[in-house]
Write a structure and sequence with these properties.
single chain, about 0% helix, mainly beta, about 55 residues
Length: about 55
Amino acid sequence: MRDNGTEITYHLYDREDRIGDYDPSGNLLISYTHGPGIDGPIAMTTNNSKEVCRCEI
């Protein structure tokens, strides 16, 4: 959970991989697609827009 004073975001994990961010009502804000290994997101989807990346976290 992240609370910046004006909005709260809940983070959903599948073991070590973050797979989604949700608002307090349970609405999906961002979904993540992971590749092999830890912290290896390869795509992020938000508001029906998909961004493909290879992020090194």
